[in-house]
Design brief:
Helices cover 3% and strands 54% of the residues. By secondary structure, the protein is mainly beta. It has four helices and 48 strands. The strands form four sheets. It has a 27-stranded mixed beta barrel. Strands 1, 4, 5, 6, 7, 8, 9, 10, 11, 12, 13, 14 and 15 form a 13-stranded antiparallel sheet that branches. A two-stranded antiparallel sheet has the order 2-3.
């Protein structure tokens, strides 16, 4: 017969998985006289009374008089319960299961010795803790409070898929677990053959787990991959996998470079508090001495901020000068950086990014820049941006104000030529209610900037002018020079612009779509140009106030013809757009700072103002016309195509008046009949996308601009390729045709192995300018990667940097990387630019 009772015992001992077993044994001995020890019971279920303890009461302590009591239960199952009154022992035999407060013990036999206060469990012992940790062993011997003891033939499975095996476990002081001859891994065992070694494991003479510090210490440790020893360390430590932030040394990084020799970087991390921490990262180099980096991070209630500082007193500054790296020839080099963002309200934020640096080559020389994003070709940027900003966003509005400072890394950059923006403000607002049946919106921009000296760009370098720009004013009627562009004016330039737009869409009974629109734009500017800057050929020096107004009215017409077929639908849609407005004013009087980029293609054919920024505004009457075709397939996929042209009807063609930057010249819009533009896109399914963009000469239909782009994502392949072919644009400094390809590819060899590559190839010069080749392995327990990267060297006479980087990471322990610059490759490779 089955026997049931209830156990009530105090629960003060730790850890959880041990105490329940002790309570079972104590309770059984206390009530041993009740049962017949000579009878074997098929299964006994025991539940004994537990001593009552006070339950917490409001405004009362745990032991307050009159406090109510709580009851906890422990369930014990076994095939037999045997009692030894003489030796004061009780044994549970056969499929023993003990459950208490979320913990569980399973074994073939459990014996409690009342004299020694020891619990002994043997045979397929399995201990489970409330946190998910599972301990397997053949023999467990613990004290009555389970603070001290040992486990033989041990295996532990953690909730984070970590595993520890050992010949013996010793517990001391209640918080130290010592695994003798231990093995640690975070890899799953082989499903086909669990006896095979895991992908990686650490074998150590002793593994010490400090539960208070939440640290794992390894003594006389060997790192093995697939059972093969690869590294030996006399001692190392790592945080407990359950600990996400832990003070201590991080895994070191090794690198070599012609600039600083061999280097070892060993970060030390301080988890000072839940809301802030710090990292000190000394980088000891063989030829330049120690470089020290420090970083402080703190998260507050409404945001977070970071402070970083780096510095080195170079031992051999002459080495940089010998390599042609002039900025590196100084004793001290360093940087100070800070960034942060905070919420003012749920819709408003403010923040900053700031960098102060001793010289433009510092980051690249010591490999300190950490590029963001996932682009395979991740070159070190040619500038660093410092800014402060205030940003707000509503349901129908947007506001952004920021001050910007650019620090150039290129060897041709001059800080006096780079503007300081103080500030730039953008504001957009769309009215919630319709106005005359249409939508009314308002957008504004304020830009204020200054620079010390003029920024000239030589575009037609010949032996006679040696690439220098003409200065002076030999002919007052001439406002441009044939060999230079004025990219930036010296002095201060401030402009305020605002534009109101109204449009309404009307669809008649035949399906024709009419969209009338009206806009009014006003600009006022104050221009202060240094009179001795030598820019009189381009703009008028001195101080002037300029104002202009651009009213615009027009209508857009679309008439989609839709046909339905068994395979899908086709849509043919002729589009026409008529724009009426006066001539653009102030060309040359207003500096062109933000509208220098001008690319005419199908994407902006129907834009009312095709200039990219605010400094230029398109004027004159214009008709834009095109035809759009779309085929949508029932099983997914589509084909889309557009072909069109723009016509200058009356007034002055803004794109034929280039101003100091020649913006619009050679763009395909600078004639009364523009070049033809076309776009074709094909996506048969989610795996393949083909896109092409063309611009044809209006007179003879020759290709002026070609872009072909393909993205393929199928099975194990993820690839993309972009081909560009561009006709010469002498007015902008492009004297020859440009042609190149940018490609990238990823191939997933299997579930874990990945091959990747990327390349930028100049077809005209037959030269490779940037590359990346890599192979990587990643699974649930470790990562391994090898990459070869070339990138531009912006700050020295060496065209490219060549780097080999090896990276690996072991889950729960950490990772490491090693990078080296290849001197031989830096001296030149056939087919690669130098």
């Amino acid at each position: 017969m089955a026997l049931r009772a209830r156990i009530r015992l105090d629960w003060f001992s730790r850890p959880v998985w041990c105490a329940g077993t002790v309570m079972f044994a104590v309770a059984v001995i206390a009530a041993g006289s009740v049962f017949d020890t000579r009878t074997a019971v098929a299964q006994r279920i025991l539940a004994f009374p537990k001593r009552e303890r006070p339950a917490p009461q409001p405004n009362k302590g745990l032991l307050s008089p009159g406090a109510k009591t709580t009851k906890e239960q422990m369930l014990v199952r076994a095939n037999e319960i045997n009692y030894d009154y003489t030796n004061e022992r009780v044994a549970a035999v056969g499929n023993v299961q003990i459950y208490y407060n979320g913990s569980g013990l399973e074994a073939d036999k459990v014996i409690f010795d009342q004299k020694t206060k020891r619990l002994h469990a043997e045979g397929n012992v399995r201990l489970s803790e409330p946190d998910g940790k599972v301990i397997h062993g053949e023999i467990i011997d613990l004290s009555d409070d389970f603070r001290d003891g040992f486990v033989d033939s041990l295996r532990i499975e953690g909730p984070d898929q970590t595993r520890i095996a050992a010949n013996r476990l010793e517990r001391t002081a209640g918080n130290l677990s010592v695994f003798q001859s231990g093995v640690y891994t975070a890899c799953e065992p082989c499903k086909d053959d669990p006896t095979k070694p895991p992908k990686w494991q650490v074998k150590a003479a002793r593994i010490i787990h400090d539960q208070n510090e939440k640290m794992l210490y390894f003594e006389d440790a060997r790192l093995e991959f697939f059972g093969v020893p690869l590294a030996w360390l006399p001692y190392f430590s790592t945080p407990d996998p359950s600990e996400k932030r832990k003070t201590g040394f991080l895994v070191p990084h090794y690198s070599t470079s012609t600039n600083y020799g061999f280097a070892v970087t060993t970060p030390y991390y301080w988890a000072l508090a839940p809301d802030y921490d710090a990292t000190l990262t000394p980088m000891v180099t063989s030829t330049q001495g120690p470089l020290v980096q420090g970083e402080w991070r703190q998260r507050l209630v409404n945001g977070s901020y970071t402070i970083r500082a780096t510095g080195i007193f170079q031992l051999d500054k002459q080495a940089f000068l010998n390599a042609g790296n002039v900025p590196g020839n100084r004793d001290f080099r360093g940087s100070f950086e800070s960034s942060g963002q905070f919420n003012l309200t749920s819709k408003w934020v403010y923040g900053w990014d700031g960098t102060v640096i001793t010289d433009r080559a510092f980051f690249q020389d010591y490999g300190l820049y950490k590029p963001q994003g996932s682009n395979l070709l991740r070159s070190t940027p040619d500038y660093v941006l410092s800014q402060s900003y205030l940003q707000g966003r509503g349901e129908r509005s947007y506001f952004d104000m920021r001050a910007l400072y650019f620090y150039g890394f290129s060897s041709v950059d001059s800080q006096k030529q780079i503007p300081v923006i103080h500030p730039v403000i953008d504001h957009d607002y769309t009215f919630g209610r319709s106005v005359f049946g249409g939508e009314l919106s308002l957008r504004s921009n304020l830009t204020s900037l200054s620079r010390e000296t003029a920024f000239f760009d030589p575009i037609n370098q010949t032996a006679s002018n040696n690439g220098l720009c003409a200065i002076g004013n030999p002919d007052p009627t001439v406002k441009t020079a044939s060999n230079c562009l004025l990219r930036g004016v010296p002095g201060t330039y401030s402009r305020l612009s605002s534009e109101a737009n109204w449009r309404r869409t009307v669809i008649d009974s035949y399906g024709q779509v009419f969209t009338p629109f009206i806009s009014l734009r006003a600009d006022i500017a104050n221009v202060q140009i240094s009179p001795d800057a030598g820019v009189a050929n381009y703009v008028n020096p001195g101080t002037s106030d300029v104002a202009r107004i651009m009213p615009t009215a027009g209508v857009e017409y679309r008439y989609p013809f839709i046909s339905v077929h068994s395979w899908g639908t086709q849509t043919i849609e002729p589009i026409g757009q008529l724009i009426i407005r006066p001539n653009e004013t102030g060309v040359g009087l207003l500096p062109n700072e933000d509208s220098q980029s001008m690319v005419f293609d199908a994407s902006n054919l129907f834009r009312v103002n095709k200039f990219s920024g605010w400094d230029r505004v398109e004027g004159g009457g214009r008709l834009n016309a095109g035809l759009q075709y779309t085929a949508q397939f029932n099983r997914g996929g589509y084909v889309s195509a557009m072909f069109g042209q723009s016509y200058h009807l009356f007034g002055q063609n803004s794109f034929a008046v280039g101003g100091p930057t020649n913006t619009g010249i050679n763009s395909g819009l600078d004639t009364d009949r523009s070049d033809y533009v076309a776009r074709v896109a094909y996506q048969p399914n989610s795996s393949l996308t083909l896109t092409s963009r063309f611009r044809f000469n209006e007179a003879d239909f020759t290709l002026q601009r070609t872009e072909l782009e393909a993205t393929v994502n199928f099975d194990r392949w993820t690839t993309s390729a972009v081909y560009g072919n561009y006709a010469p644009q002498p007015a902008l400094g492009f004297l020859e045709r440009r042609e190149g390809v940018v490609t990238s590819a990823k191939f997933k060899v299997d579930q874990n192995w990945l091959l990747l590559g990327a390349m930028r190839f100049d077809l005209k010069a037959e030269q490779i300018s940037e590359t990346q080749l890599g192979i990587g392995y990643i699974d649930d327990c470790f990562l391994l990667a090898l990459n070869y990267i070339t990138e531009y060297a912006y700050n020295s006479n060496q065209r490219l940097n060549h780097t080999v980087m090896f990276q690996f990471s072991l889950r729960t322990i950490g990772g490491n990387s090693f990078s080296t610059g290849l001197t031989a490759l830096n001296q030149g490779i056939p087919g690669i630019t130098k």
